[in-house]
Amino acid sequence: MSIVGGDVTVPPGPRTKAGQSEATTRILLAEAGRLFARDGYAAVPLDEITRAAGVTKGALYHHFGSKAGLFTAVVARVQQEVAARVAAAADAESDPWDRLTAGCRAFLASAADPDVQRIMLIDGPAVLGWNEWRRMDEESSARHLTEALTAMAETGAIAPQPVEPLARLLSGAMNEAALWLARSDDPADLDATVAALTRMLTALRPS
């Protein structure tokens, strides 16, 4: 399943009211995500979203309250999917150091996707405001990074130090790197970025 858009297939046959509501929510999120990624939040009118989703404006307002409310839900969905990919990559490793580097690589690979970059890193802070965007980021990828660094500090995998500022420094660096990667046409830039990040992380290890 793609991070942006996703499966909008509605199962055939009779559906309950709750099922219909869930299907409407799913298709609105998918179509809005696709349009926001393609054109940007400001350039997508509500009429285009409802037409693509095959629903009324009333249905959109009922489920999300406004275009901004729908966009907030789209951002949250993208952040959660990126966080899930980061967690899956990290959980596939047993060594704490490998878990951290695998998670960082998964974040960069996911966030460097132009669609994800447009929604999560460009329009997200601009539309939601920095404080709200940051709060949502804390609940997704940033939380996993903080947990990983905390575990590594507790086990001695990195030198003992305050984790909160370190997590924010690394998160900011990776967000900026993802923005750069999304504008790059060279596939080798992802490996180069991961290598540079690994060298930065290596400096955290005990002497």
Any chance you could write out the topology, listing elements then pairs?
Layout: H1 17-39, H2 46-53, H3 57-64, H4 67-91, H5 96-111, H6 114-128, H7 130-138, H8 141-155, H9 163-182, H10 188-202
Write structural notes for this entry:
The protein is mainly alpha-helical. Helix content is 74%, strand content 0%. The longest helix is centred in the middle third of the chain and has 25 residues. It is elongated and about 60 Å long. This is TetR/AcrR family transcriptional regulator.
Helix and strand element order: HHHHHHHHHH
Biggest sheet, open or closed, and with what strands and sense?
Answer: none
How much of the sequence lies in strands comes to: under 5%
- Global morphology: elongated
Number of E strands = 0
Q: How far apart lie the N and C ends?
A: 43 Å
Number of helices: 10
Please state the average pLDDT score.
88
Q: What is the percent of helical residues?
A: over 70%
Please give the radius of gyration in angstroms. Answer: 19 Å
Structural class comes to mainly alpha
Enumerate the spans where pLDDT stays under 50 for 5 or more consecutive residues: none
Summarize the structure.
With 207 residues, the chain is an all-alpha fold. It is built from ten helices and no strands.
